Amino acid sequence: MIASIHGTVIAVSSSRAVIDVQGVGYAVAIAPRIAQSLRVGEQTRLHTALIVREDDMSLYGFADELELGLFDLLRSVSGVGPKSALGVLGAMTPDEAARAITDGDDAPFRRVSGIGPKTAKLIVVSLSGRIAPPSAAAQPSVTTAPANDSDGAARTALAAALTGLGWPERTAVATATAVVESARADVGDGAPLPGLSALLRTALAELGPAGGRS
């Protein structure tokens, strides 16, 4: 795994930089904001994520661990690939993304090329509770729901998330009830339930392919 890269910028465009490291040029996909800060001939250090696929190996570069952490979180959402995740970082800062997720506002994500309304909604729902509010921490963090969240509130929030993703209300309510009851049995009485994002992943796994929607 290539965690970071340090070398001389030998080429840069709005979406890619080539960094020379001891005579080897590494092509790194970057957001326009980073491209604007790079100068040919100057030294730079980028935090990186190496994405390996069957027919491709791509290196993505970031200014700091905060951007890299958000990139990884975004890619954990169903339907969000590395290019779309990088597109989010090109459209907003990590603080702006965290604020939108914390506020439940999917509009900024809908404006990103390649992200449709349902995927934008899924980003907000899936990452709610997993990313700290902008002023609360230096980087995205995973949390669980507060201990005083009631099972009823969890069912309501989960059902609302499922209906927002296009599932019929009756299906959403029944699935939310079953998932929350199962989670309660797993953690025991008095213990906090998993966060909404974890409950949603379980619900989506149980519901199966999107063909079940009406």
β-strand amount? 15-25%
Largest sheet: 5 strands, mixed, barrel
Known CATH architecture of the largest domain: Orthogonal Bundle
The low-confidence parts are 136-149
CATH topology group of the largest domain = DNA polymerase, domain 1
**What is the typical, i.e. mean, pLDDT?**
84
Outline: elongated
CATH class of the largest domain: Mainly Alpha
How would you name the CATH homologous superfamily of the largest domain?
5' to 3' exonuclease, C-terminal subdomain
Order of helices and strands: EEEHEEHHHHHHHH
State the total count of DSSP E strands: 5
Subcellular location: Cytoplasm
Family: Belongs to the RuvA family.
GO molecular function: ATP binding; four-way junction DNA binding; four-way junction helicase activity
Pfam families: HHH_5, RuvA_N
Molecular structure report:
The structure is a single chain. The protein has 214 residues and is of the alpha+beta class. It has three domains: 4-62, OB fold (Dihydrolipoamide Acetyltransferase, E2P) (Beta Barrel); 65-127, 5' to 3' exonuclease, C-terminal subdomain (DNA polymerase, domain 1); 151-212, Orthogonal Bundle (DNA polymerase, domain 1). It is built from nine helices and five strands. The protein has helices spanning 32-37, 65-75, 82-91, 94-103, 107-110, 117-127, 151-164, 169-187, 196-207, and strands at 4-12, 16-21, 24-29, 43-53, 56-62. It has a five-stranded mixed beta barrel. Helix 7 (151-164) packs across helix 9. The longest helix is centred in the C-terminal third of the chain and has 19 residues, at 169-187. The radius of gyration is 20 Å and the shape is elongated. The chain starts with a strand and ends in a 7-residue tail after the last helix. Mean pLDDT is 84; it is low at 136-149. One of its GO terms (molecular function) is four-way junction DNA binding. InterPro entries: DNA_helicase_Holl-junc_RuvA_I, Hlx-hairpin-Hlx_DNA-bd_motif, NA-bd_OB-fold, RuvA, RuvA_2-like.
